Amino acid sequence: MAHEPTFTSPAEAAYDHRILIFGRLLAAAKGFEYLLSQELEDSTGLSHSLFEMLLIVARAGEDGVSVKDIAQAKVVTSGGATRLVSRAVEQGLVDRRASTVDGRVQLVRLTPAGTRVLLEASAIHARNIERQLLSALPPGSEKSFEAGVRALSKSVSATLPVMP
């Protein structure tokens, strides 16, 4: 186990490179989420949360995905995921049907309208990500940035508790 750091002053703690890295990561993520979410919603009327849910459903394929799996992927409670799915159903973007394996489980699938909206929103979102995020990276660093983000995502996914 790594040696536990000891700080002798508030300034020393505030300028610790580990604390600065995490603070900058969090601030950048929040900033990009705000900017990209706003542009997505202004362009399509789709909230970022709903867009992310549609992506999760699309990744599941034709069979669909359970609300429980949506909750885990989005790191929200099952109640939060249920409300999100209900909003998408009301907008005609997804449908729910009983699983053929376990009738108690509802599987969520994209509707044709949901597919159209997702494709339109994805094109806009990808263009905005390129313009806002990727263009800010030093030249030639996109692949290493992608690998670093993937490693962080896998690490946190492996240690998150199952969402209630």
Any overview of this molecule?
- This protein is mainly alpha-helical.
- The protein has seven helices and three strands; from the N terminus they run αααβααββαα.
- It has helices spanning 10-14, 17-44, 48-60, 67-74, 78-90, 112-132, 142-159, and strands spanning 65-66, 94-98, 106-110.
- A hairpin with a 7-residue loop joins strand 2 and strand 3.
- The chain is globular.
- It starts with 9 loop residues before the first helix and ends in a 5-residue tail after the last helix.
- The model has no long low-confidence stretch (mean pLDDT 92).
Task: Give the tags.
164 residues, mainly alpha, three-stranded antiparallel sheet
The major beta sheet can be summarized as: 3 strands, antiparallel
General form: globular
Estimated structural class: mainly alpha
> What is the helix fraction of residues, given as a range?
55-70%
Enumerate the spans where pLDDT stays under 50 for 5 or more consecutive residues. Answer: none
Mean pLDDT over the full residue set: 92
Distance between the first and last residues' Cα:
31 Å
- How much beta, percentage-wise? 5-15%
